[in-house]
Structure formats: structure tokens, C-alpha cells
Amino acid sequence: MLNVSAVSLQLGDQTILQDIQFSLAKGEFIGVVGPNGAGKSSLLRLIQRAVPADSGQILLKQRPLAHYTSQELARTLAVVSQHPPPLFALTVQQVAEMGLLPHKSWFERTTGSDEQAIARALQKVGLLNKASQLIDTLSGGELQRLYIARALLQQPALLLLDEPTNHLDVHYQHQILQLVRCLGIAVLACLHDLNLAALYCDKLLLLHQGRQCAFGTPAQVLQQERLQQVFRLPCQVAVQPQLQRLQVTFLPPELTDLC
Amino acid sequence: MLKRHYAKAMMLSTLLLLASMLLSLTLGSADVSLADTISVLVGLAPGSPLAETIVWQIRLPRLLCAVLVGAGLAVSGAILQNASRNPLADPYLFGLMAGAGLGATLVSVVLPAQLVGIAAGAFAGALFAVALVFVVCAGQHWRKVEITLLAGVAVSFMLSAISSFILYFAEPFAANRVIFWLMGSLSRTDWYSVALLAPVVVLVLVLALALRRQLDALLLSDDSARTLGVNTTRLRLVLLLATALLTACIVSQCGGIAFVGLMIPHLVRYFFGVTSVRLLLGCAVVGAVFLIWVDNLARTVLPQQEIPLGVITSLVGSVFFLFIMRAQRL
Questions:
Q1: Nearest to A83 among B87, B221, B231 (CB)
Q2: Which residues does B149 contact at the CB level (< 8 Å), separation at least 6?
Q3: d(CA A26, CA A134)
Q4: What is the model's pTM?
Q5: Do B274 and A89 touch (CB under 8 A)?
Q6: Which of A50, A90, A107 sits opposite B219 (nearest CB)?
Q7: What is the DSSP string of B116-133?
Q8: DSSP structure class, residue B316
Q9: pLDDT tens, residue by residue, A75-105
Q10: Structural domains in chain B plus CATH codes
Q11: ipTM computed for the complex
Q12: Is A178 on the interface with B (CB under 8 A)?
């Protein structure tokens, strides 16, 4: 589905990403983790072709990224990210309808079957009953789900998520990731929370200062010494008994020692 | 629910447009009754030659120009506001008016009399201003429309300063002619103006409707549009150029008519909706109705004299704007 090999990115004389190498199979959910400034968002921007790589190759469905027209790319790859609040009042339905754009030519109308596809996508993210509401009445979690519905209407093979759980409370964090997990398409998501990543992702890509620190299953990536070095905090990795998933706990110095 | 709302608004305003057009053909210093007007228009019963001339040669071209100018300015304003996500964008954004003013000044004061028409001079001046703004802003890929707005303001002041300097030393008669011309009027329009404006207005409207999904995608953010496969730089450039060309044509035919492009889209958004098809079609109809009545007012309020259109639109527009800002609907 996605093959990234030896990819580097420079901005001016600063190296943002260096020698990134991983691949993403059909239906797989890979989480990109790492501290602030590690290059997580830059990697996502590279893959959505917002910036060109300086060296290396990115293959999307066995085809170099650069060979795609922008319309073809938008049919293959959808991006869910944060947007500033819109200036003019759009409805949920209208935002979802934007997802049809890559499949439409000039003057082509939104047909009855398109309307059904929109309804199905909204149903999938649980927003069908809010279709005619203005989007400024939605909560953060609902807005995120709406952008996922819009992305689904692009019928992509790969979904990129940039910090999908930012600003969401615990309930919505799990709701969004459960939803994404069940979509059945390949997903690459930047995540801050290592425990969420361990819980929902098939594989993790750990970045540190623009370099690929580790890539593999959560058990392979989330190792105590490595995390202590990358996040510069003492930590403990254990298996959560009920979920049988890894759980990372960072252990800051005693609060009494701080003050 | 929203759809029915839109259909109702569209139907009402179209009826209003047709009624306004018919009614304004009967308004004017000469008395031509509604029945006479209709029979002259339809061409069934031969009306009096005088009524025929008045309706066909004077009132109808002027009315059609009012429709085209009102629709053109409102549609341009709507395109620019949506494409730039800036509620203050307006067709005169690029210093067009100041450029047109300078062009008009040069041909009527500096160049030998009647060498170039005032319309042609204004058109060239308007394009010059647009070109200047485009050259300044080309480097930043139209991402920051604020910069375009500021460049437009700077170009406006520069070109107006040159016009003022020339007018200050010009003979009063020529200076007056330019100043009154700048205030805007449809009194100089004829069938030639209709033939010039109609294709440009229709072309811009069709272009914007063809790009409606791209325009809608821009409403959320540039990134959002880009990930949907929209080339935002090219889209903005095409739309800015199209509206600039349309506005330059309008300015060349009827001088400065401010506030229509700024005000009408806000009104239409409230009653019709914010997405492109509703907004553009609504703006075309409502803009036309608005300018028809402004022109009717301009030519009938004072006996034997016309009020410049720009004076009325600016007055109505600014009061309207302050009113909705106070009501916080903006």
C-alpha cells in the first residue's frame, strides 16, 4: 500500500527527517509517535505531497507519489487534520459533500446515489441525525468524526490522521480510534498518547529528532530504555492485565524534590 | 429544510427581478404607460414611434446594464469573499477604481481631446492597477489575501495621488467631468455596453459555477482544499483574474459603484446559504434587483437631474453595513 524508503527532508540547512524507512500494508493501522518536533507532522506532510522529499522514494500502491495527478492522489489518500473555525456557516451535510470533489468533473451534479453515500458515511460516524446542523454547533469529537466522514467519501485506500485525538476528552479519544480501527482501510496516524497507540495500532513508528528510532509492533517499539532516552523521563512498561496490551507510565521525579 | 428555504428565496427574488424590470421601463421623465410598454416590447400592436424609441433605445439598454452591473458586481464580490475567506473582500480590492480614475483623468485632461474615449482610458487604467497588484503579490502564491488587500490599498492611494495632482492643475470643466464620471452613472450606457457586459458577466458566472466544488472546499481551509486535490494557487489566480476583468469592464461603462459587491453577498448568504451555487445565483438576482432600484431612484428623485449611482449605493450600503454589524449578523 505505502512504501517509504530512505526518505529525507531538509528545510534550509536544517534536517527535518533523515533516512525514514517503513511500509504499510493494506488494512494496517500504523501510529507515528515521538516527542514534539520529532518530525511526525512533517512525515505526514511528505506523504500527502504538501512538501517534496529531498531524497528517497515514496510508493503509494506501487506507484511513485510524484506520478499522481492531484485528483488521483485525492482519490487514493485522504487526510483528516484540524481546521480553523470556518468564516461562513456550513452545515454537516455540506462539509461531508466536499469529499465527493475528487470524483466529480466540472458541472457534475450531486446525484441521488451520492446523497445515499453521504448518508452512509454520516451514519458510520454517527452524525446522520445532525446532517442539517451548522458545524459550529458540533463538539470537538463530532467535528473530528465529520472530517472522517468527509475523508470516507473520497473512497481512499489510505487515510492519514494528524493528531486525531487532540483536544478530545478520554471518551472521544477512544471513540475516534475505535472508529478508525473498524474502517478496514490502511491508516497512518500521528499520536501523542503512547498508551492509545499501543492499544489501537498494529505497528508503531517511533521518531526522534528526525530519525527513525524504531519500527515494529508495539511490543518491539515500546521498550523502557528506548523510551527513557527519547522522552527524557524515567518510565515503566508493563502489560495491562485486562487488555493484554502494553502500558507505559512515565515517572517524573518526586514532586517534593521539584520545589 | 434548508433546501426549501433556498428555493423559496430564489423564486421570490426572481419574481421580484421580473416585476422590477417591467416596472422600471415605465419610469422616467416621458410618460409611457405599462400597457404601451408591454405592447412595444412584445411588438404586437405597433405603439407610437416615440414610445418605441424611448423603450428600445433609451430605457431597455439602460435597464439591462443595471441588471448586468448589479449581478456582475455582486457575483464578483461573492467569488472573492469565498475564495479568500475574507468577508471584506470586494471587487474594488485591487485598486481598480483608482486605476480607472487615473485612466479617465489622463484621457480627458492630459491627452488631446477625444483622442481616446473615457471608457477605454478607465478600462486601461483599471487593468494597470490590477497588473501592479498582481506583480507585487505574485511571489506569495495568493495564500495570504490580506497582503493582496493591503497591496490594493497602497496601489489605490498611489494612483489616486497622481490623479489628484493632475486634476488640481487641470481646467475646472475637464476636472468636473472626471469627478462626476467617477461617482458612477448608467446614463452613458447603450446597447454597445450591453453587448460588452453580457458575455463577460455570463462567462464569469459560468466559470464560478463550474468551479463550485473547488470554491466550496476552500471555505474550510487551504489545506482542506489541497488534500481534496484542488490546486489552490491556480484556482485563486483564475478567479481573481476573472473578477478583475469583469470589474474593469463594469467600471469602464459606468464609473465607480461602490458597496454592491461588498454588501449583496452578505445579504444573500443570510437568506440563500453560504455554498457557491446558492450564493452565486442569489447574488446575480439580488444584485440585479438592487441596482435596478438604485438606478430608478437616481433618475427619478430629482426633476431634470440625475443623482450619481455611487452616491446612493455608498449611502445605502454603509448604513446597511453598520446596521447588520450592530445586529451582529456578520
A1: B221
A2: B86, B88, B89, B93
A3: 35
A4: 0.88
A5: yes
A6: A90
A7: S-HHHHHHHHHHHHHHHH
A8: H
A9: 999 999 887 777 788 999 999 999 999 998 8
A10: 2-299+306-327 (1.10.3470.10)
A11: 0.85
A12: no
